[in-house]
Amino acid sequence: MAGKWLGWVCIGWGMAASALGAPLQLGTDEWPPYETLNEAQAPGFSVEVIRRVFDAMGMPMEMHQYPWARAQSMVYAGQNDGLFSAFRNAERASHCYYPDEPLAVDRWVLFVRRDNLNRLSFHSLADLKGRLVGVVRGAAITPEFWSLVKSQRNYEESVDDDTNFRRLLAGRVDYVVASEANGARERFRIPDGEQIAELPGAVLKEDAMYLIFSKQTVSAQTVAAFSKALRQFKQTGEYRAIVQRYFPDMGGGPGK
Predict the structure, then answer these.
(1) Where does the UniProt annotation place the signal sequence (predicted)?
(2) What is the DSSP letter of 63?
(3) What are the residues whose beta carbons fall under 8 Å from the beta carbon of 119, sequence distance 6 or more?
(4) 210 DSSP β-pair partners
(5) Domain range list for the chain
(6) Which of 62, 64, 78 is nearest to 24 (CA)?
(7) Which of 68, 75, 199, 237 could form a disulfide with 29 if both were Cys (CB 3.0 to 4.6 A apart)?
């Protein structure tokens, strides 16, 4: 299967690969388990998948870590060629191409202090009124969510989930919005993180995540070629091994 996949990529990439000059510049943040560039032994699910696909395509690229809002503004301005792992929203779609094939699927959920599990609940966005919500700046949660918290002025933005979870433990916010997979790991990276819990049933959004490409610097043909190569890679044993390393408790892996 691997040989067949590599052969397809070489044929499908063809002239585009030979025409490449400087490496593509990809921006990301620190967001385990998807991207942790500073951890050489476990750089992240998305990092490993993207590297493997570009290696097979013969396409040079480099990855750089920034705060998420900065990484996003750089790809909008054409200062970087790509951004990951990005959920879909209208603003990003106006600046960037989305491949047909996603990297994974995750859910935006609410986390609370464990001692508030019986006091706080979530049945609709209206339940957030009168409560303070921690959220990462630039996060692609639903337009309805942002409309509510901006109208209520009941949210605090931060550069990363680590900061939000620390604020939650300190009692500065009542809820934290985070990716389910990320939050499940990130909360245990800080002292007393076991006192944080996912609020049952509090799902704000389930959505696919992508490597998106700047419309200023990357062609639609390149995006389509990446999408096809990613789809082919997902059929390999190597991909399944990456899934197992980062999501050992998810039988089908992310996006299943």
Answers:
(1) 1-21
(2) E
(3) none
(4) 86
(5) 2-105+207-246, 106-206
(6) 62
(7) 68
- For the cut 50, the answer to whether the pLDDT of residue 243 exceeds it is yes
Predicted pLDDT at 15: 35
How far apart CA 121 and CA 99 sit, in angstroms, is 36
Q: Which residues, 6+ apart, have CB-to-CB distance to 49 below 8 Å?
A: 103, 230, 233, 239, 242
CA distance 199 to 127: 13
Q: What is the pLDDT of residues 93-108, one digit of tens each?
A: 999 999 999 999 999 9
Q: Using only C-alpha atoms, what is the Rg of the chain? A: 19
CB 114 within 8 A of CB 107: no
Cite the beta strand spans of 16-121 per DSSP E. Answer: 24-28, 61-65, 82-87, 96-97, 104-113
User: What distances in angstroms separate CA 7 from CA 97, 233, 240, one per listed residue?
Assistant: 26, 12, 20
Helices and strands (DSSP H and E) totals, the chain: 9, 9
Q: Give residue 226's identity as a one-letter amino acid code.
A: F
Per-residue pLDDT of 29-79, as tens digits, reads 999 999 999 999 999 999 999 999 999 999 999 999 999 999 999 999 999
> What's the CA angle centered on 209, arms 208 and 213, to 5 degrees?
130
The DSSP call for residue 118 is: T
According to DSSP, the residues that pair with 109 across neighbouring strands are 178, 203
Beta-carbon count within 10 A of 105 CB: 15
User: Phi first, then psi: what are they for 89, rounded to 5°?
Assistant: -150, 170
Cα dihedral across residues 98, 249, 47, 29: positive or negative: positive
Among the four given CATH numbers 3.40.50.460, 3.40.50.1370, 3.10.25.10, 3.40.190.10, the one describing domain 106-206: 3.40.190.10
